[in-house]
Amino acid sequence: MNSPSVKNRLMRQGFTLVELLVAMALVSILAVMVTVALNSAQQDARLARTRSLVQRIDEILQYKMEEYKTRKLPVQLPQSSTTVEMTVPPVEVSRVRMMMMRDLMRMEMPDRRSDLVNYVPSTPVAMGPMNIRAIVNRTDSAGAALGAIATSIAWTTPSKFANYIRRLPSDFDDWTAEHESSECLYLILSTTTLNGVSALDLISPANVTDLDDDNMPEIVDPWGNPISWVRWPAGSPSSVVTKAGEDEFDLLNSDWGYGPASGISPSFSLRPLVMSPGLDGELGVVTTQFPTTPYAQMMWPVSDTDGKPRPVSGSSYPYIDPFNRQVSEALPGAVISEDSIADNVLSYDL
Fold first, then answer.
1. For residues 133 and 181, which has the higher predicted lDDT (pLDDT)?
2. pTM exceeds 0.90 for this model
3. What is the rounded distance in angstroms from the CA atom of residue 349 to the CA atom of residue 54?
4. What does the DSSP assignment read for 161-219?
5. Which of 4, 26, 153, 204 has the fewest Cβ atoms surrounding its Cβ within 10 A?
């Protein structure tokens, strides 16, 4: 006959319900801890890869921007005739070159669709070189002043711009503000060569995809969000150089922002801003141009009553203004909200 102690041992060969529940709870807690740790590690790894990607793209864009400082331009100023002497002040020569340089950047380094095409549904029109005009002084053969006039400067379409237009999809209806900056970035990288190597080869294939199925790929971060960029982030506090005269592309202060009219700030140094939305997929920076007037269709001044300086009274001139000084809305590069920008990865912060 079994003793009571033997019976108890036989009855205790299994776990009680309470013990099973405690064990399951411990396993669940451990599983959650491991999952959280793995997820945190994955997010840290994605953040590190995103920083590396943003920095790599920023370096490529900075390299291209530096090239513009020594770029030769086909500036052909008007010639004098036997009856009229044409005089172009040095500051005006500098302004014409500055305007051509801005227009080249707009065409060769687009950050929005309107830099490439004037979009009308089903009938996009290529936004080629703008009609740059030089202000020249005239005198007759006797030396009497004939007054200043504005004359157009002819120049050709850059080959890279023509290449972009050929590569654009025929259907522009699917282009969206959310993806257009990243799609323009893809165009730039796919046509840029560094030391014989395509810039696109420096980007992992995992970071190139067509999110919106419009036959124009985007550059995306490890979370799958489009990488955006702003060529002229005039609204970013980090981009502003308050000291006048520090615009590398306007060494003679020829920008009309240096005019006598009140409320006009001079030009300043700008450098590209590259951005990833981060984990939440929400950008906290303005990327679109306000108002919707394309850079290539900007005029100076915008009206005859706005108080802006002008070289010849009563006239307006095609004038790309990266600083958007003739509008009052939020500028590209401006912070939308501190909450939405908190997890953004910005090239300015690297």
1. 181
2. no
3. 10
4. HHHHHHHS-S--TT--HHHHHHHHHHHHHHT-EETTEEGGGGS-GGGEE-TT-SS--EE
5. 4
